[in-house]
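Hi C.,

You asked whether I'd gotten around to modeling the 123-residue construct. I have! Everything is below, sequence then structure, no commentary in between.
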Amino acid sequence: MRCCEGTRAVIIDAYNSENIGKIVTILRPQTMRERLKIRHHAKVWIVRSSEKLKWNMNGVYHYDHIGPIPENQLQPIRDQEFHDWAEKNPQPRANCFTYQMMEAEQRSDKRRAELNDPTKCEC
């Protein structure tokens, strides 16, 4: 999850293009009791905006300050305090195949450079 409750974010993608670029505050995860609901494969957040946002539900446009947005359409806004904390507490790399491949390629490149170095010839 990139977002959490209370985080401010920018809308970076939207079905209604006039919503793009608006700043929102994330209130809570969407529940099925919301007035406006959307189905999405990613987590959906209920957000609040100072400007009215536009939703199209079953062909009817709704304008409101509060409504649902999928997490993958939001970019969290981090403050300087977060960046300072992140520099002091670097997160470990995810244990996934991509990082394992990158590390193997780095080791291979280093070994190849050592073998091609004429100053280290065992002649």
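If it helps when you're writing up: The CA atoms of residues 9 and 62 lie 21 Å apart.

Thanks,
B.
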